[in-house]
Amino acid sequence: FMFILMLAYCFNMIDMFLLSYGWILVFQYNVLCLTFKDLKHENKRLTENDIGHMDVNIELKNVLYDQLKLFLKMKSYYKCSRLIVLANTVFCSSIIITMTFTFIVTFSSSELSSVFYLVKIASTDLYVCFQIYLYCKLFENLNNKKDSVNFSIYSSDWTNMNLKSKKLLLLAMNMNNVNWLQMKASPRRHVDLQQFLNVLTTCYNIISVMVNTLKK
Hints:
It is a multi-pass membrane protein. The protein is an all-alpha fold.
């Protein structure tokens, strides 16, 4: 029993770390998008040697460096968390199937069941569903924030920038397009809210088959 408690504690600590770090990345991508949107130039045209352009060029280079560091963080995070997230999804799906089937069998049996026992089963089901939802919501937000970087670059005041600044913005856009990275459950399926619905649908189908088999 103590081993099970320690195992559950370890899993919860891992989940807390992965989810917390993931939301930190979402926040950092949001800051990056706001930084690109807030890049402003003077309305008057300046020469490339002007101090104003030099300041913007330096700022753009710093933003590009931050963008590269953020992508490397995200790449390492995906590499470390992918197997854990997929294993957690499979494990949680098994719990949902088992607990829901147990709840249905217990509730429909002729024996007088403890209400507290049924509440515990239902609570476990809801907790596990919420856990899968958090992961799917997290990675959907990460994908959306990363994709919104290019839109933020378009929203910057790039029309009034000099040629060097425009080239730096184009480099930032290319960097975001080339470094295309998403958490995938399979080659064609991403970990997002659609995947969460797919998991629930699969669990429902399996439970329906089990219940129909039990009735025969």
